[in-house]
Design goal:
The structure holds 2 protein chains of 2 kinds. Helix content of chain A is 53%, strand content 8%. Chain A has helices spanning 9-25, 42-47, 51-56, 58-71, 86-92, 123-128, 130-142, 152-183, 196-204, 206-216, 218-238, 262-282, 299-302, 319-326, 338-343, 346-361, 380-393; strands at 97-98, 111-112, 248-252, 287-291, 310-314, 331-336, 366-370. The two termini of chain A are 28 Å apart. The relative contact order of chain A is 0.13. Chain B has helices at 22-29, 36-59. Helices cover 53% and strands 0% of the residues of chain B. By secondary structure, chain B is mainly alpha-helical. The A-B interface holds A 83-84, 128-129, 131-132, 134-135, 138-139, 142-143, 161-162, 165-166, 192, 194, 199, 203-204, 227, 230-235, 238-239 and B 6, 13-19, 48-60.
């Protein structure tokens, strides 16, 4: 947790913002509606950097976030805009990402190369000893430099990869501490969570692989997601260094319509996810249930979770239904469509935010955010308009 | 060196955060003349760091 000197104006600002944020997450009514913005690549535009610069140059990635949080009246910061450090991926020869400035134009969004990076006949090995499978099978497959374990190149890839990740995580912690002590800005989350089905589907079996597995080897999905529950709980807490004041961020993907039908969702997606969320809450760790896409049909199931254990994030989910079913027991966040932020006018954004606050935030338990990660299509003027509108209309 | 066990001492799969269990390392060390708890604590912290490194490539 950030360590801010007690009693100074910066500390007071830090506590004011943190209290506002935590009160809303506890479904209370703070002094103002909190603003938590998932500023991705748009922060590079805001700071005048190319995407190549924020993907490769960690100092510029950090500087973009610092510029945003010192100039916009936010309550918490999501951290630096680039999710990953491209150089770390280059050091190991990652074959699943394409980067601005490398093979893409210097201002083109990174590209993830979907694939079956875990083969269909590897479920048993993965379930029996996942850590060994990752090191001996998965990393040699996805990292070109690590393709021949024991070779000079592979040993270097391990050294650089481990050192690079340590350096990156240490730097992120130092940035968060500096933003807190120098600017009174808390972090929006600590730690990264995943639904076990998404662990399988995002980076291992791929979308095509896992959707076929539902028909060809469903029992393997059940066994693998069951095995992953304690690992995903552990990882979310360990990646937060044990912090439980802030929520972990859990981006959720295949649980959205239309990837699974309701029976598949009930059988293969929800049970293991629910256990992860309850396992985290049992240790005091709340989760930002970052429900990308449309989760409207599943709100009643999500309502089975313990009160206040999640912040339900509204992307394309019917916000009125989310409020009806989850409101009063769970904080909601989001509600400002990325299409509006990309193609609307500042006036449109301001009007939308005013309505959003009046209809969904009046009784507290609401955090304004974009519906999804703000990338290069979002207009900076609209981000500014969002913040100004929420400050104008979001005082309780 | 002997093949590293993929199971804990009880025969169950390794828990999260563990790559090489302390019990395995202790066997390899042989007799410990000082406080084994100090050694165990530091071993497990570094072992957990290796676990995080490996799983980071999956959870990213």
């Amino acid at each position: 947790m950030e360590d801010v000197a007690v009693g100074t104006p910066t500390e007071q600002l830090y506590q004011e913002r943190l209290t506002r944020y935590v009160t809303a997450m506890d479904v209370g009514k703070p002094d103002k509606v909190p603003i938590r913005l998932n500023l991705g690549e748009v922060a590079a535009t805001y700071a005048g950097f190319t995407l190549e610069e924020i993907y490769y140059d960690r100092e510029k990635n950090t500087a973009a976030a610092t510029k945003v949080l010192t100039e916009l009246d936010l309550d918490v910061t999501p951290g630096a805009p680039s999710l990953w450090w491209a150089s770390l991926h280059d050091a190991v020869g990652a074959r699943y990402l394409r980067w601005a400035g490398r093979e893409l134009d210097m201002n083109t969004q990174f590209q993830f190369v979907e694939g079956e990076y875990m083969l269909a006949d590897e479920y048993d090995a993965f379930i029996a000893d996942p850590t060994r499978w990752i090191l001996e099978t998965y990393l040699p497959r996805i990292h070109v430099d690590f393709a021949e374990p024991g070779s000079y190149r592979a040993n270097l890839a391990l050294v650089k990869g481990a050192w690079g990740l340590h350096s990156l995580l240490e730097g992120m912690g130092q940035d968060a501490a500096r933003w807190a002590t120098d600017y009174g800005m808390p972090s929006a989350f600590s730690g990264l969570g995943k639904a076990p089905f998404d662990t399988l589907g995002d980076t291992l079996r791929g979308m095509k692989g896992i959707l076929l597995d539902l028909h060809r080897r469903p029992e393997k999905i059940l066994a693998a997601t069951d095995m992953l529950v304690p690992h995903n709980v552990y990882y979310a807490l360990a990646s937060a260094a044990g912090d439980t004041l802030l929520p972990d961020l859990m981006p959720l993907h295949r649980g959205s319509l239309p990837f699974l039908n309701p029976k598949q969702w009930d059988t293969y997606y929800w049970p293991s996810l629910k256990r992860v969320l309850e396992g985290l809450w049992a240790q005091g760790k709340r989760t930002i249930f970052y429900a990308e896409g449309n989760w409207t049909p599943y709100l009643d199931k999500i309502a089975e979770l313990p009160d206040r254990s999640i912040v339900f994030h509204v992307d394309q989910t019917d916000i009125a239904e989310a409020k009806r079913i989850l409101g009063g027991r769970f904080c909601l966040s989001g509600g400002v469509p990325n299409t509006l932020l990309a193609y609307g006018t500042p006036g449109d954004v301001a009007d939308h935010c005013k309505r959003l606050i009046e209809e969904y935030a009046a009784d507290g338990g609401f955090i304004v955010d974009s519906c999804s990660v703000m990338q290069t299509d979002v207009q900076v003027a609209n981000v500014v308009a969002l913040v100004e509108a929420v400050r104008a209309h979001g005082v309780y | 060196m002997d093949e590293v066990t993929t199971e804990s001492a009880s025969g169950a799969p390794l828990p999260p955060g563990v790559c090489i269990p302390w019990e395995q390392k202790l066997q390899e060390l042989g007799a410990v003349v000082g406080d084994p708890e100090i050694i165990r604590r530091e071993w497990e912290q570094l072992d957990a760091a290796a676990y995080i490194y490996l799983w980071w490539w999956v959870h990213r």
